[in-house]
Amino acid sequence: MAIRQGHESLNMIWDLHCHLHGIEGRTPDEKMARLIDCADRMGIDRLVLFMGTPFHVDPTPEQFRAENDQVLQAISHWHHRAFGFVYLNPIHEQESLAELDRCVKDGPMVGVKLWVAKRCNSENLDSIIRRATELKAVVYQHTWLKTTGNLEGESSPADLVALAQRHPEASLICGHTGGNWELGLRTVRDFSNISVDLGGGDPTAGIVEMAVRELGAARVLYGSDVSGRSFASQLAKVTSAGIPAHEKQMVLGKNLQRLLMPILQQKGVRL
Fold this sequence. Notes:
Blueprint: E1 2-5, E2 8-11, E3 14-18, H1 28-41, E4 46-49, H2 61-75, E5 82-88, H3 93-105, E6 111-114, H4 126-134, E7 138-142, H5 157-166, E8 172-175, H6 181-188, E9 194-197, H7 207-215, E10 220-221, H8 231-239, H9 245-267
Parallel strand pairs: 3-4, 4-5, 5-6, 6-7, 7-8, 8-9, 9-10
Antiparallel strand pairs: 1-2
Helix pairs in contact: 1-2, 2-3, 3-4, 5-6, 6-7
């Protein structure tokens, strides 16, 4: 697959940030088939999927296991096109560690998704991050900077920096580039084990250029946050950005492939 942009051909597009919630279909299999159909029309080769439907903001262990089961079912027939990240709640530390082993160590998932139940500067996360690092799993942390104030358990980029300082060997992703991306990029700039996710915001001109300028192209990752946002609007951030074609290719796919390669090789996944 490829997207043609003028005389450029942008190959290998991997979408970091996809959800089942809001996608048409009665079952995870039907929802996944719909996602793949839309991805095909947009030239997207691989999807990373996390969280089920409905979303649980502060899930019990039973709830996050159920959401992970939905993702496991959704990707079960699409391992050549999709990866899963396990959804955990650090408030339930031991149960999260057991779920991490179930879905990543003993299952097909390749990363961790953390949302808004507990701020990520908390020591509750330390055992989870250590275990994820042992398994070579990438950790995606939702972050935001809201003018009206974050949710009680919602992390900011500064919270992620505190986590990164405690775990310099971990591979961390700053979700949504902090929402307020100008501040978010500057906050995580000096921490090389943090990459940023472009997904989930308006397709504002300048975000990709600033991210590449501040962090270097190797730490910037395309994601859509579908179905909260569309594939097309989020791809447009990258395809219309004033950066060289080889940097667009890094952002659209090569960077995520590189981050996931250690765990994919460990699992024997052939690309």
